Known about the structure:
The chain is of the alpha+beta class. It folds into 3 domains: 4-213, Arp2/3 complex 21 kDa subunit ARPC3; 235-362, GAF domain (Beta-Lactamase, 2-Layer Sandwich); 454-575, 2-Layer Sandwich (Heat Shock Protein 90). The chain contains 17 helices and 15 strands. A 5-stranded antiparallel sheet has the order 5-4-8-7-6, with helices on both faces. A 5-stranded mixed sheet has the order 10-12-13-15-14. Strand 7 (317-325) and strand 8 (328-337) form a beta hairpin. The model is unreliable at 579-585 (pLDDT under 50).
Amino acid sequence: MIELLPLMIERVGILIIVAFLLSRMQSFRQIIHNEHSLKEKVLLIVVFGLFGIISNYTGVLVYNGSIMAHTWNTDVDMDSAIANTRIMGVAIGGLLGGPFVGLGVGLIAGIHRFTLGGFTAFACAVSTILAGIVTGLIGKRFGIKKNSTPWGAVAIGILMECVQMGIILLLARPFHAALNLVEVIAFPMIVINGFGTLLFIFIIQNIFLEKERSSALQTQKALYIAQQTLPFFRQGLNPHSCREAAEIILNGTKADAIAITNQKRALAHVGAGADHHKPSNQLATRLTRRVLKTGEIEIALSKEEIQCFKEDCPLHAALVLPLKAHEQTVGSLKLYYMKASRLDKVEKELAEGLSKLFSTQLELAEAELQRKLLKDAEIKALHAQVHPHFLFNAINTISSLIRTDTSQARKLLLNLSTFFRSNLQGARQLLIPLEKELEHVKAYLNLEQARFPNKYEIDINIDPDLMSVLIPPFTLQPLVENAIRHAFPRMKNGKVLVSAQVKSGKMILITEDNGKGIPQHLLELIGRGTVQSDEGTGTALWNIKKRIEELYGKEGSFQINSMENGGTKVSITLPLSWEPLEELG
């Protein structure tokens, strides 16, 4: 009995080695993780059926109570039996795959054992099939995945081995030979099969644990990438935001290239193939158009499916995912690979997770854009309320000049036309060139100076190279208007300076006057909301500040410096490279 133990350890060691090698194979891992489908169940039957066959061939031959250490059993004498680990593989297969797998594995291992012969052939075949059925039913109810400890599976394996000993005593003949055999093999087979089942379960559960760890890491990676891309996708789908986001995704995944499109054109491509995969005004591939139309994920595993026109393009596989906002496909995310083998299941799951996260970010971007537009509409409504008062004053001034100075009246009419045209343009556009805003300012100043000649001087000092920089409309004009109306209401020789300069890659707009300044107690409140004052509410300054914060975030700033009787200086900092938002749809 004792001398059989080391031989059985050798046999179970063979199966454990095979099991460990299989556990390192991706295909076997996929079978373990997806055993509920028919295809995977059949594969489990084949794998664990082979375990049973190997156990039969490598078992220890027992002849008339004596142990015969053969290396390979192909034909067993009628007076002989085999001590092996067959039940271990059958039990694990049943626990892992349920009744269908248990029955299939039991039939394969049991029938094969029957064909080898020996006086216990029929009893072993029956016990093997029975073990498969019983463990399959137990596996359906509990399963290895659901067990927090492997000891339950070990107990089931030991129980099935005990049942096999009982069936041998019940069915094998002559009985005295069966009894003698059980006395020799029972303890070693029960102990070793229990030990082997424990190791085998550890291997199987380690596959599940690695899957969970991998999923956790993928989730962590997806959240990290989403966090990094959030500031850019919140700007919507535009070339600048998409290129920055694509760079982050490229560094965070195994992809060799990343591309992002909206519904109409490619916005960015970074990584391999960037020399000819360039942003364009159209969508180049049917693959992308199909994703945008159906909203479903598409996979390309060859250059032909990618449809690149360049023969030496290094990209051989692609994963194209839809980007959605409010259940509408607004763009696509494309992950390219130089080898199709790099596009594995883990990468697919990561990409699908990123696609959902990015879609959520785009929905937030659209909501934020709508909020900005609503705020913009509120500001423009405020301007519309002010304009009638300004219009009446301007018309009265022009009418008084018609008879005395027709040329000046004509110029003022043109200025009035320019002023209102600027208002209309600002109402339709989120950003306008600095040059257009200055036209608005100058038109306003000409009309005001006609009403109050020699009351103040205006000095505009701006580099011509900055005239094309985009800024929010109604930015400078309200500041100049504030200076004229509030800075020096009773004093003459007032001066207002409007200037622009570039510093650290940003443009700084400055409006400065030499007026009476702002009292300290009001200065602390201005820019945070409206204030109660006999001379104004500070609404214009607060609105400008809010718009800059909402459009540019930390990239822009609005600052007021003032002292009583020491003038006021308003500085607006805007990024030079910032691009306007594009529509998501």
